[in-house]
Amino acid sequence: MYISKQFWIGLEEEDVCSHGEIYLKVGGTIITQPGVNERWGISESALALLRTLSKNYVSNPENEEGLIFHGCGTILMMGCPISIHWSVFHIEDQIILKDFIKVAAIDPEKGRIHYPGLQVTMTKKDYENIILTFALQAKDFFEESGKKHIDDSDKEMYQSFWNEYTELLHIHSELKG
At what angle do helices 42-51 and 124-143 cross, to 10 degrees? Predict the structure, then answer.
């Protein structure tokens, strides 16, 4: 998994979420890739993925927005059913990824793609490397951008988002070595 392209949808100084194209291949199955007219919320997805580095995550498309967000909501990590879901289980030094579902349309029943039997097991170290690389790339994009002009009503949420993001990056980078 990697970010192939990252950009702002609106004005750079007003957009609080980066967007772009992601390449996600699990086993031999490509779930999303550049050039297929899919746009994802990169920074939102990175935080969701960082959260899975220290705890299990059970895929639940009916109640959750997944691990890969579309990014069409007006508030960070809220508001759009288009997403990619999978479960993450920590078992000693192994990570098991399974229960992959892609919701590719606003109407989740019409656009739901299941990947039955798709499961992969990897070392915790390999999983951390993939997620940390993704999250650092997303954060670098923000750091290279100009100052954000954020509505007063969104400032606290925006700061909270980046506080958690930075803390999780720090914790897992320290554990890595």
Answer: 150
